[in-house]
Amino acid sequence: MTHYTTNNEYAVVNEYAGLASEYDRRWAFYIEATLRETLKRMDLTSHASLLDIGCGTGSLLQIISKNYPTVKIVGIDLSMEMLKIARDKQIKDAALIAGEARCLPFRSKSFDMVVSCNALHYLRNPEECLSEIARVLKPQGRIVITDWCDDYIACRVCDVFLRVFNRAHFKTYGRRACELLLRNAGYSNVQVERYKINWLWGLMTAKAQIPLHVQKRIVQV
Ligand SMILES: C[S@@+](CC[C@H](N)C(=O)[O-])C[C@H]1O[C@@H](n2cnc3c(N)ncnc32)[C@H](O)[C@@H]1O
Q1: Which of 3, 22, 34, 82 to mutate to test the pocket of ligand 1 (most atoms within 8 A of CB)?
Q2: Is the CB–ligand 1 distance for residue 12 below 6 Å?
Q3: Can you give the pTM of this predicted structure?
Q4: Domain containing residue 182: CATH number
Q5: What is the total count of domains within the chain?
Q6: Which of 138, 146, 163, 189 could form a disulfide with 209 if both were Cys (CB 3.0 to 4.6 A apart)?
């Protein structure tokens, strides 16, 4: 597939080729906690169009499809193996597409909301990806990102370890760094909330909006 261009993206593809069949079972607690916390903060409306970046095995899309059957849902992921598991779930009316976050195969202003869970720490060029997400969001469209939060010590230790031993991993962020990433990419109404999902592990969910003046600068493709 021609879009797997960087070493990091190859590493992600390899990582999840090995993990996909075990992913839902092995990470059940973590997936459930992430999706619960993310859904709580999404304020989804029933007629929205939604893109899930790094949708993996489609757990979030499956819940949304069940609870909001009129939401138009699209998932994109680098890993064909993760997408295969998602497709086997036969999520009603979900389009599941192979692709990468920094080059989204969608027209500008296509989605009311872009969501991403547990994928930010893989992105080697987060600024580029956030600008690309801004392009595909409609005016006043919203982004919701949940990922590990390295304000928590366990996450910081894990980040250091994975940077050395796992080629797929890039880096984690704390609340302030995440806010800055979003502001620098031109988002407004940036809010990042951090929280623990058990005694050890902490996540953060970032919410922001694409302001009208950024939309005006985006070239229609
Ligand atoms: C930890 S899994 C999370 C899956 C799902 N969102 C969840 O929370 O269960 C990370 C996913 O992000 C995908 N991913 C990583 N980098 C990506 C990129 N640049 N573009 C698209 N997907 C990416 C991986 O293939 C993997 O399926």
Answers
A1: 82
A2: yes
A3: 0.94
A4: 3.40.50.150
A5: 1
A6: 189
